[in-house]
Design a protein that fits this description.
Largest sheet: 10 strands, mixed
Number of domains: 3
Number of helices: 17
Structural class: alpha+beta
Shape: globular
CATH class of the largest domain: Alpha Beta
Radius of gyration: 23 Å
Helix content: 25-40%
Length: 515
């Protein structure tokens, strides 16, 4: 019986203290924090975990330097603190990285203001990163040949952090932690409707794999619907002060543009920050900020033309990037917070808040999460625990609900990996850290699979760190139902390789034949 089926059986006809609806980053951290507090928790997601918004970020763990432009100092202070905390809690999954911001003809300020802004950012970041540094045009040309020198006034270096693996994989870390604290967790389960019965909620659910319907009951419901938060709330007849407006952000993945391990930052033609971000052996360029009405959006030709035009304008390339250079695309919708009944059409779009808000109703015991960012996820989880406490549920001491808690065994794993006769020096440098980063102590189990069969040591693509043995382990232990769950979310293969490369890969064909 698969792990998902085990949890589906546990979910059916059960009574819970809290049910979290929505398996993006907000839902995952809520379930992990509540389960670690000793509550009987269920997490349901109608698609795959991190299947929409939470798989489309820039992969940055940052303090939000661009929010200094809108004078949101408290938000930047909180995000910087969250970034520092994640760097400490996830030393293998989150790494510090330098940003080199070009002060070019479209920058909304000059070198002096850039220096003051990054200095303030460093202060708000509690001095936990390297101090910023201003570069002259000559120094920029010497240090980063990829920056177009035409109209350049200089550049400023500041530091933030980046997820080494993709954002959806990071969400799975919290889902896994919820599982380890005995939460009942299922993907591809939809909440069709809800009804209030005495002092509890009856949720009418559907297994989206076989269309089977069943009910569960719970005292408290967490609405972590992301862009669908309003639609989900209407099923509980829950009125809220806040609502969300939707903004589409597009990134394009292209061949690696620079050998320097840093993020390049520019200002697009509207004066908004625009990035070239490293992603293993590729580069990610973007993002956009476009108002939309639909929570599910697609990349348009206009989006592609805009992103490519900004990259070609800002970068000193031997030949311009074209649509033929696009390996994959990311298109996500940000839920931005609007308070009250303001007419969003009359609000400065870029001024809408990127922070999160959490509302709760003491009578109906509905908790609603609005907005939020990956960087701020730990705060969301801890706030949810405090709110549930206010709703009358007894909380035991919360413990070990996030972070890498088994670092003392990392050296043991590296020693075991190196002692094996099955691996090359390249495997030790590339594969071993990736196994530990993604699986922690479970990396020992994958190493055993590799010892059992030499085929399991094969890399899916020779240049990348994913092996056939790791894929087998994921299929068995990570509730994967569809190929995209594996190649897009548990791993980043469909971001790093184009459709032709993936369809021609023999190992991928073998894996996909199992679905």
């Amino acid at each position: 019986m698969t792990l998902r089926q085990v949890h589906l059986n546990r979910l059916k006809d059960s009574k819970f203290q809290v049910v979290v609806v929505g398996g993006g980053i907000n839902g995952a951290v809520s379930a992990a924090a509540l389960a670690a507090s000793g509550l009987k928790v269920a997490l349901i997601e109608r698609g795959d975990f991190a299947g929409i918004t939470s798989q489309e970020s820039s992969n940055m763990v940052w303090g939000g330097i661009k929010y200094l432009q809108t004078y949101e100092l408290p938000l930047v202070w909180n995000l910087c603190g969250s970034r520092n905390h994640l760097l400490e809690a996830f030393p293998n999954r989150v790494r510090p990285i330098s940003f080199l911001a070009a002060i070019g003809p479209t920058a909304p300020f000059g070198k002096i203001l850039a220096s003051l802004g990054t200095a303030l950012y460093w202060v708000l970041g509690r001095f936990k990163t390297k101090p910023p540094k201003l570069y002259s045009v000559t120094e920029v040309v010497e240090n980063e040949t990829l920056i177009n020198p035409v109209g350049l006034k200089g550049a400023i270096r500041y530091d933030d952090a980046l997820l080494i693996d993709n954002d959806a994989r990071f969400v799975w870390d919290f889902v896994k932690n919820a599982l380890s604290h005995d939460a009942v967790v299922t993907n591809y389960v939809s909440m069709e409707d809800a009804s209030r019965e005495q002092n509890s909620w009856r949720l009418h659910l559907k297994d989206c794999v076989n269309d089977e319907t069943f009910d569960i009951t719970t005292e408290v419901v967490i609405n972590a619907g992301g862009p669908w938060v309003k639609d989900l709330g209407s099923r509980f007849h829950n009125e809220t002060v806040h609502r969300v407006a939707l903004s589409k952000g597009v990134h394009l993945v292209v061949p690696k543009l620079t050998t320097n391990n840093r993020v390049l930052a520019f200002f697009d033609e509207a004066g908004r920050l625009f990035y070239v971000i490293p992603m293993q052996d590729r580069s990610v360029i973007g993002t956009t900020d476009t108002r939309v009405e639909d929570p599910v959006s697609e990349v348009t030709d206009e989006d592609r033309d805009f992103v490519l035009a900004q990259a070609n304008r800002c970068l000193n390339l031997s030949k311009p990037l074209t649509k033929e250079d696009i390996i994959s695309e990311r298109c996500g919708v940000r839920p931005l917070i609007v308070k009250g009944k303001k007419d969003v059409s009359k609000i400065d779009w870029t001024a809408l808040s990127r922070k999160h808000e959490i509302e709760f109703n003491k009578n109906s015991k509905i908790v609603t999460i609005f907005g939020g960012k990956l960087t701020d996820c730990i705060n969301v989880g801890e706030e949810i625990v405090e709110i549930v406490k206010k709703l009358g549920l007894k909380i035991s001491k919360i413990k070990n609900w996030y972070g890498e808690t088994d670092q003392e065994r990392y050296k043991d794993f590296l020693s075991a990996f190196k002692e094996s006769q099955s691996f090359s020096e390249s495997d030790f440098e590339i594969v071993a850290p990736a196994l530990w980063r993604r699986h922690g102590l479970d990396a020992f189990k994958i190493l055993d699979l590799m010892h059992e069969d030499q085929e399991n040591t094969l890399r899916i693509f020779p240049e990348l760190d994913l092996t056939f043995g790791e894929v087998k382990y994921m299929l068995e232990n990570e509730m994967i139902q569809k190929p995209q769950d594996l190649w897009r979310r548990r791993t980043a293969i469909s971001l790093l390789r184009n459709e032709a490369e993936i369809s021609e890969n023999l190992l991928i064909k073998r894996v996909n034949s199992l679905f």
